[in-house]
Design brief:
alpha/beta, Adenine-n6-DNA-methyltransferase TaqI, Chain A, domain 2, five-stranded mixed beta sheet, three-stranded mixed beta sheet, globular
């Protein structure tokens, strides 16, 4: 598989420039109207642990009454765990809500035509590691707030390049996940190869102004 990878120059922008960043929440468990017969997916860390990183439904649901007035988070948003367990992420492909352990990143309207959300999904592997190293070191549970999250910078190559990289990484990801049997060393080697090319393909230099 040819990757055609390599470091190249491109513009960089902060997540705060590109995304609306909102924290999740938990509707009151004492109000049955928020939970009984709910149809709105309500994501938690358990969903990522049990069902992977690209999700179309949640284990639990809330009702429309349980959704805040600002509305559900839109489909094709990214979520990142930013309290307690730090740095786990997923792409959500349906309208949804998530709990307070998770922060949601939704593309701003003005960037929906110049950012491929799947490209950013792959960048979030490095972002997750950055989050782990930038938590609030005070007392209590580890946490990273939205103000700090908004400062993280990502490369923004042309859309054609984003789509090319996504196509390659999707194929690598499929190869890794399609392995249902084989020697553990073989499987581990394939995963390391995938991670190597993911890092290589997502390496960009900032344009010097």
């Amino acid at each position: 598989m040819s990757t055609g990878g390599g470091t190249s120059e491109c513009e960089w922008r902060t997540l705060g420039e590109i995304f609306d960043i909102r924290n999740g929440y938990t509707p009151s468990k004492s109000n049955a109207d928020y939970w009984e017969n709910g149809t709105v997916p309500w994501f938690r860390m358990e969903d990522i642990r049990e069902n992977g990183r690209i999700l179309s439904d949640a284990i639990q649901h809330i009702t429309d009454e349980g959704v805040k007035k600002s509305g559900a988070f839109p489909a094709n948003s990214l979520i990142m765990s930013t309290t307690a367990t730090i740095g786990e992420h997923a792409l959500i492909i349906t309208d949804f809500v998530c709990n307070q352990q998770i922060t949601c990143f939704s593309l701003k309207n003005e960037h929906k035509n110049d950012m491929d959300i799947k490209f950013v999904f792959y960048l979030f592997f490095a972002f997750g590691e950055w989050c782990k190293n930038n938590v609030n070191k005070g007392g209590g549970l580890p946490i990273i707030n939205t103000a700090k999250l908004a400062t993280y910078k990502i490369p923004v190559p042309p859309m054609e390049e984003q789509e090319r990289i996504v196509s390659i990484l999707d194929r690598f990801d499929k190869l890794c996940n399609d392995i249902s049997e084989g020697l553990p060393a073989e499987i581990e080697a394939r995963r390391k190869q995938y991670e190597y090319y993911r890092d290589k393909l997502l390496s960009f230099e900032e344009v010097k102004m």
